[in-house]
Specification:
mainly alpha, 6 helices, 72% helix
């Protein structure tokens, strides 16, 4: 009677076949999405670029919500609140000051007159999200 050793019982490769297929599928999908976005930015008009950017933002928000609710079965809108907070704060912080004066007349004085670059606004919004997360999450622990 022949005995099977551990090396003979395991399939070759690091991951099980199902995960290898899922990983390959996910990488192919990401590659296709990146190529479509790149083509839109190279060959598309400004309106097409805006649509592709908006679609990418929505796709990111939906995937974040799906990862959480799809795995746990619990629907939570906390992620949507943080996406909204980040989008709103980034929009205000990157808006040109002339546009702030006309479109946002009631903007608080400490925000009026400031226009940050995208990456500077991203750092400020990240800190804001951490503060809001601590303020809302700490009492719930």
């Amino acid at each position: 009677m022949a005995s099977v050793t551990m090396s003979e019982s395991k399939p070759s490769g690091f991951m099980p076949a199902a995960f290898r297929n899922a990983t390959a599928d996910a990488l192919c999908m990401v590659a296709v999405l990146l190529l479509v976005a790149l083509a839109a930015f190279i060959f598309g008009s400004a309106a097409m670029q805006r649509v592709v950017t908006y679609a990418a933002i929505m796709l990111t928000a939906v995937l974040g919500l799906q990862i959480f609710s799809g795995n746990s079965g619990i629907v939570s809108f906390g992620q949507a609140a943080f996406v909204g907070l980040g989008a709103y704060a980034t929009g205000i912080l990157t808006m040109p000051t002339a546009l702030q004066r006309t479109a946002l007349r009631d903007l608080p004085q400490f925000l009026a007159g400031y226009q940050l670059s995208f990456f500077a606004a991203l750092a400020v919004v990240l800190a804001l999200a951490v503060i809001v997360g601590l303020l809302t999450g700490t009492p719930l622990l």
